[in-house]
Amino acid sequence: MSKKNYIVSLFIPHLGCPNDCIFCNQRKITNYVEVVKKDEIRDEIKSQLANFPDKSQEQIQIAFYGGSFTGIEESAMIDYLKIANEFIEDGKVRSIRLSTRPDYIDEHILNILKEFNVETIELGVQSMVNSVLDANLRCHNSSCVKMSTKLIKSFGFKLGLQMMTGLYKSTSEMDMYTAEELIKLKPDFVRIYPTLVIKNTMLETYTNKNKYIPENLHDSVEKSTKIYLKFINANIPVIRLGLLNTDNIKEGEDVIAGAIHPNYRQLVEDNLYRKVVDYILEDNNPETLEIHVKPNILNNFVGYNRENKKYFSEKYGFKNIKYCNSDNNFILINHTNRVDIDLKNIFINIEKEVSLWD
Fold first, then answer.
1. Cβ atoms 136, 166 nearer than 8 A
2. Burial class (CB in 10 A: 0-12, 13-18, 19+), 117
3. CB count, 10 Å around CB of 174?
4. How many C-alpha atoms does 174 have within 13 Å on its Cβ side?
5. pLDDT tens for residues 258-306?
6. Backbone conformation region of residue 169, classed left if phi is above 0, alpha if psi is from -120 to 50, else beta
7. Which domains does the chain have, with CATH numbers?
8. Which one, of 155, 304, 180, lies nearest residue 233 by Cα?
9. Shortest CA distance to 168 belongs to which of 123, 132, 219?
10. Is 252 helix (H, G, I), strand (E, B) or coil?
11. Of 45, 144, 165, 237, which sits with the fewest C-beta atoms within 10 Å of its C-beta?
């Protein structure tokens, strides 16, 4: 069993960003109003390291998030990297990861990052549709994404890609296209963020003027489930689904509209496993149902607030559904008819099964 990895998160809001995208208020998202001073970084790293129960160097990365790290003035960027490298040289941290924009990647930058023990680079792609990128003031196009990802991979960095669903001027078809294009780029992992309408952004103005209609939670979860499934079937890990409802990002306060939920990822995964059962029962009309699955996915079959259990009961008329932990995944229909759940094959079939999608 692999050990848990730990991330020392350092937020550098808006440093390196040329402008606000229409959906962006990084100072609110990262909870930092003033630029972090370099002389405060050591104390912040030490503070976070002290909270990790296992301080193995091989498990810890220092991460620069929040802005476009490689767009920072070069001397300042190197200063940040040097501070992080002090902890690598002391044997307390394995490496560095950072997030940036596709248009702030070139060979010169990558040579610097390689010299200073950067291991992982995440690109905020958001969309692979040029008209959507233009409408959201991203200031780069899809060709730039393809070139920068190819360059990053050629240098041997781990590559992460971030996409957003429900952007201004995007459609469900465009979001699916973006996911398919990201799969072609073969990242090591991805993040999927539904668009939220945050206060003091251009998108808030568009929403107030009815120029933008935010997605509701149900529609967002359904779309994210299909996109999530695409990445699963392509063997690409999805390390984040949705922004968290935290102290600095609160529904009804900072977020005025959009699909925010404290358990957004669970809603997506629950929806996927609901479709697994629907797929299996599609040609059956059983009277009883027992779901025997491994403990790590049992809650997904039950559902957040037991919503899947309610759904199965209402759709199929079950008076009682039995859930059991098991070493193998299978269901019992009418007590005796055992159907083994081959998730890999079922996931592939579900993606193609039009009847299972809203």
1. no
2. middle
3. 16
4. 18
5. 998 999 999 999 999 999 999 999 877 788 999 999 999 999 999 999 9
6. left
7. 6-261 (3.20.20.70), 282-356 (no CATH)
8. 180
9. 132
10. coil
11. 237
Q: Is 191 helix (H, G, I), strand (E, B) or coil?
A: strand
Tokens found for residue 123: 């690109």
Distance of alpha carbon 86 from alpha carbon 131, whole angstroms: 43
SS3 content of the chain, % helix, strand, coil (to 5): 45, 20, 35
Residue 323 neighbours by CB distance under 10 Å: 16
Whether the Cβ atoms of residue 71 and residue 113 lie closer than 8 Å to each other: no
Cα–Cα dist 288/340, whole Å: 16
How many C-beta atoms lie closer than 10 Å to residue 218's C-beta?
12
Q: How far is CA 80 from CA 39, 97, 116, 159, 243, in A?
A: 10, 12, 10, 21, 26
Two tokens at 228?
């999530």
Question: How far from 277 is each of 49, 284, 319, 346, CA to CA, in Å?
Answer: 43, 11, 16, 10
Cα–Cα distance between 127 and 178 in angstroms, integer? 6
Please, what sign has the CA dihedral across residues 142, 143, 145, 150?
positive
**pLDDT tens, 44-99?**
999 999 988 766 767 899 999 877 899 888 988 999 999 999 999 999 999 999 99
